[in-house]
Here is the input.
Amino acid sequence: MSLLHYLVLSPFILAIFIPFLYKWFRNVHTGWFILPLPVILFGYLLTFVTTGQGMEVVEETVPWVPSLGINFTVYLDGLSLLFALLITGIGALVVLYSIFYIANKKDEPLNNFYVYLLMFMGAMLGVVLTDNLIVIYVFWELTSLASSLLIAYWFHKEKSRYGAQKSMLITVSGGFAMLAGFSLLYVITGTFSIQGIIEQSAQVIASPLAVPAMLLVLAGAFTKSAQFPFHIWLPDAMEAPTPVSAYLHSATMVKAGIYLVARFTPVFGGMPEWFWIVSAAGIITLTWGSISAVRQKDLKAILAFSTVSQLGLIMTLLGLGSAALYFDVANEGQYYTFAVMAAVFHLINHATFKGGLFMAVGIIDHETGTRDIRKLGGLMSVMPITFTISLIGLASMAGLPPFNGFLSKEMFFTGVLDATELPIFNMQTVGLMFPVLAWIASIFTFLYCLIMLMKTFFGKYQPEKLEKEAHEAPIGMLISPIILISLVVIIGFFPNILAYTIIEPVMNSILPGFTFEPNIYHWHGLNTEIFMTVGVILFGSLIFMNLNRWQETYFFLRERDPLNQVYDKGLDGLITGAQGITNIQMTGLLRDYFAYMSVFMVGALMFTMFWFDAFTFDVNFGMMGSITPYAVIIIVLLAVVSLALPFIQHRVSAIAVLGVVGFLIALLFVNFRAPDLALTQLLVETVMVVLFLLCFYFLPELKRGDFKPKFRWLNLVISISVGLTVSLIGISALSLSQTDGYESISMYFIENTYELTGGKNMVNMILDDFRALDTILEVLVLGIAALGVVALIKLRFKGGEDV
Amino acid sequence: MLYTLANIALVIMAISIAILFIRVIIGPTLSDRVVALDTIGINLIGFIGIIMLIQNTLMYAEVILVIAILAFVGSIALAKFIEGGVVIDRGDR
Here is the structure.
């Protein structure tokens, strides 16, 4: 166990102590105990940041299930480090923010909150810092679980539970698909280590299992990162407390899918399917998310769809950048690595401004009591600091200079424009959709940023619609967003502080073997990108000015994503469908279950017989004894009696006839020289008849009377087919056993009964000497049956009692 | 000679069982059926006796005894059932 292992496990260890700290130090806000941990972790992780080329990769292994190749391997390279820094850094800020956000110590179960939050933090660190696929999957599911727990933090609210269930179902299904994908990768490469798989990436791509494995892994990544059409859980996850939304649903968890895609880019990057699926899903998500965000009236819902859209942007860039791996020659490939750099840069930027915006929205919610943009307005003078934070955050999100969003947006435009020049995958024609869609999405992004800003802070102040008198937040709540927003500004003005420290190592992990020029400039000259940005601002403002006219249209009024209907109907349909199927088959009638069993038995046996062509009627009668005339009469009689049984109308008669059948069978035993069997058969048959009569006597009054078996054609068919099947199998077994040439082992018993046991009755000697174990157990069966009968008769439960 | 005769006797007895069985099925009252069953039992005794002759063995002597006892016990039980509806009385009645 190295320090890095403890780094991953420390949140879990601290989580164990949270309930005690909460109980013993009631007058201290529990959050203060948490705060040092992410700060220390962040500080420790910062020591791994190096300038220049040499980001040293750290790899430490602790065996977990070594026999299955599952090891708790911590692998820290540029990509992991970036995510770990985001998780711990924003984690620390979120904890600080939550201390002031959930200030009411008495009413809120703070211990739950911080246990879940620490669980999430540890799980997330585990996802990004481990190298073993199974370990990643374990932590991945833990993030889903912690996320659901946090969404349903106010579990008394119906919508929280709905959101938690939805996010759980969607992300866990994706996670499960991912596990299947990981298993396929293991099948292809024979290792669970990601680095091991990257080394064998050529072999992976060549494998026929590559596309299924890729699709399954992407299913996990897309559900987690809220890509179209799996994004529907994210807006409903906004029922969580705002610190949770800021942490999980903007900065960290939803980027787990991005992390996974980036991590697997060296494996699948060269495949056209990967390029197309990742980029297309990204660009669709980007457009759809930005259009949906415009329709929202709730600030957090706008931010949720905006997160969806920005995640789509990052995903698109990762997809487009994977084209670099398609070329073997590093020369031309380098050209496309730019998209990956844009993705990484925007990933950092998005985490900063989105975290800050969520916190600002939380402040507005906290201080006014509402998040509805129709009720808010004119808060600029009331909440100046929050306004400044929001202004910078929104400007950055909209992609305005001089903030970091502008830089990444310009790089995004460059990336999509470059993509149209790719000489592969028909990009020169179909690829034109990328810049067009990206541009449209940017207009809508600008629009919803403008809506958020104008509707919240400008316009008329409406105190009568607010639940509280609005005022500026306490300073403690403002610290975290101020830090994040100052990062937005700092990165905006000095983007190159990140270039060699963070971005270059990350690029080295995503696209190993390439060299980069990670320089980010504000001014590229008068190129297409700058005109696109100008167009975005122009068109966005134009739409905003005409917004009053558009607001009344159906498109704007409908807030909920239509895909939710698919989910809701699907879930309902699943439940009703499952119930329907259960109701159809589970009738509660033993008769039906018996029919199922018989039909299945006949079907399975007949199919097997046909499949192996096992029907033979080639019985050698010469090998059997002679058939005597009286035996024929007895057998005919037996058949007639058995056939007559179902038609007997009177129960006592039926019992008597059944007795006759037993006697005739005893007679057959005699005929075939089995005296012991005949004796036992007679005794048992008599007892049976007596027992049947006993049952007949105890039949309830109402139904006593004549016994009229209902006649059903289906029953007739089933019973005849059962009889036919068994007869055919018997005949073919007999004829096959006559030809297979094996002797029966009975000669051994005949020769050795007297020598070995001293008895002359061979049947009895087999029963209690050669094969005595069976006899013992059958005695046991009889004992159990007797005890069961006694228990059934003696122990009677009154109504309501349970065994 | 003996073998042929024994076989003929067996066939006759089997036919007799068949006729008795018809009585068991159509017998208008339960009593008819009980008497028929009892007679089937007696027929079985004879049947098995002749089979012992044919197979030249003494192994079935117990079977014959058991059938005799069971036919008696069975007839008594059924008779009691017809009379009182109960086969085994309770101690206090």
